[in-house]
Amino acid sequence: MKISVPALSLVVLIGPSGSGKSTFARRHFLPTEIISSDHCRALVCDDENDQSATQAAFEIVHAIADRRLSAGRLAVIDATSVEPESRASLIALAKRQHVFAAAIVFDVSTRECIARNEQRADRRLPAGVIQRQQAAMRRSMSKLKDEGFRYVYRLSGDVLGADGAEGGADGVTLERVRLWTDRRDDCGPFDIIGDVHGCAQELESLLDALGYTPADPASGAGRRHPGGRRAIFVGDLVDRGPDAPGALRRVMEMTAAGAALCVPGNHEVRLVRRLSGRDVKLTHGLKETMEQLSAEPPGFSAEVKNFLDGLISHMVLDGGRLVVAHAGLPEAMHGRSSAAVREFALYGETTGETDSYGLPVRYAWAADYRGRALVVYGHTPVREALWENNTVCIDTGCVFGGKLTALRWPEKEILSVPAVREWYAPIRPLAEPDRGDPESGAEPGADPGAISGPPISGLIDVEELLSRFRVQTEDGAVITISAENAAAALEAGMRFGVDPRWLIYLPPTMSPCETVPGGIGPDGAGWLERPEQAIAHYRDAGVERLVCEQKHMGSRAVAIVCRDEAAARARFGVPALGCVYTRTGRPFFSDAAMERALLSRLSIALTRAGTWDRLQTGWVCLDAELMPWSVKAQSLIREQYAPVGAAAAA
């Protein structure tokens, strides 16, 4: 017998005492995955048979399961769980964590369970207790899916064998399957395309700009990227625009050929319901789509329905570093499956209020997002691609006369093409096209097809910074910055830092090891640091391997180099050729002329090397060592250390 459970799920073993649950669990799951009620009872009172500790034990069972699921780990409940009431709290836990629940039922005869129970030296239950457990299980066994279990497997005594291990003809094979949303092994590169809304002509222009060429130039069919890139569509392919069938046909063709992926939007959901014969009002552009589909060859609408109906709510890609969902997705829902996850991915979350245009007011989930993965979404049209925390909205209102936008991954570059015209009047007007956008850093009159990266506004939210500011680290930990430390950092940044719009990157560094006063050198001198001290420090900290590297005497320098000032304005909103700063974000040079000369030479070198064309970019970030180190030291001594020394002496 083959059992398949999602790699991230809550597995509940159901059966009376002596039915073989624990034996099965030890064979198929890791010890850390199994949460045994008997073991938790022993944790409470040192005796797993003490029934007075049962309530406390199950509180521990639920707490451990909750923590494991929250961390993205499988949890297996080893308890009798024969009563619907005992399973209800587990189903609620799975729903809260947005994971599927799987039930494995051990349907072994009462006589066999009693016989096994009598052979146990550690615990023996009265035969009447086992009989009641068996009866309770069988009364509710047919209703497990109604309770909320997505998967239900029944193991009979023939399969399990006389000793509780798998016997029978083939035994039991347990398979862990990834959810459809889990595409972490797929690393791209990708071109993520925003809401098309039937703008097929603009879609073709954007695919041209992205480098997707047709296999048959005459018909334009079979678009692929010669570099192996793939498109990802964020949904809302249909409604409002002039050619929903054309957009659908292109996306379906590319997806079938392996040249594209697609997640659904809320407009696709309404279209599928209408094509399925449901009573859906012909509003929000659906009327136009249905009229356009009616002119297509017979069978096309059925193909569209099958394609759209098979799309999954969202995708987690590239080792978990990228998430694509139509309306966005908070971190707690990444890679999970539930009705709530699909609802959020399609519609976002609303407050229940409406704005002055009569549109629903949405929770600003991106403002609170601190996740490691970049979330790329559409759904809410904006004038320019909107970067907020580690999210980006790429619905730039093409059907409303704006642009059709793509995000290149992993480059994080934006490429847009302008709409041919305003195809559908928006209820809430987009921003005037000549205003510029302080959120995006875009300049008025910028080339609509220009490539850019994640813009930096240059504005610091002081109130947020000074009220227990939190930093989400790459390994999942959250660091809270106290107000007094944040104030000191803010002062240092304002007084000594470069324009924050340049600060797209600070190089990683490590603190020096601890030193021992007096040193350990043979002459007893008080060295600041010696290799022996460093090695001893790391050994004491549990570090088993060190990689030692000879370092030249340079100073760490980060150079943001732009092709020209126009590229700098488009990407950073700063009219300059670039910036050179230290690993702490301070200007490397006090001499502005020297910085300009260096940036000019670097830009010329990158031009001669063909770097701009090869990377298809207008800017680069170089993490480098600048030699000699005294270039920086001389200006520091002159402009900072010397005044401090003079003031101290005076």
Structure overview:
The longest helix is centred in the C-terminal third of the chain and has 20 residues, at 630-649. Helix 2 packs across helix 3. It is globular and about 90 Å long. It is an alpha/beta fold and 650 residues long. Strand 19 and strand 20 form a beta hairpin. The relative contact order is 0.07. The model is unreliable at 431-458 (pLDDT under 50). Helices cover 34% and strands 19% of the residues. The chain has a six-stranded mixed beta sheet with strand order 8-14-15-18-20-19. It has a five-stranded parallel beta sheet with strand order 3-4-2-5-6, sandwiched between helices. A five-stranded mixed beta sheet has the order 13-12-9-21-22. It is built from 21 helices and 27 strands.
**Approximately how much beta-strand content do the residues carry?**
15-25%
Reported for the largest beta sheet, the result is:
6 strands, mixed
The average pLDDT value, as a whole number, equals 85
Unreliable stretches, pLDDT < 50, 5 or more residues?
431-458
Termini, distance in Å? 88 Å
Question: What Rg is obtained from the alpha carbons, in whole angstroms?
Answer: 31 Å
Please tally the β strands and state the result. Answer: 27
**Secondary structural class:** alpha/beta
Strand order of the largest sheet: 8-14-15-18-20-19
What's the shape? globular
Helix content: 25-40%
- Contiguous helical run count: 21
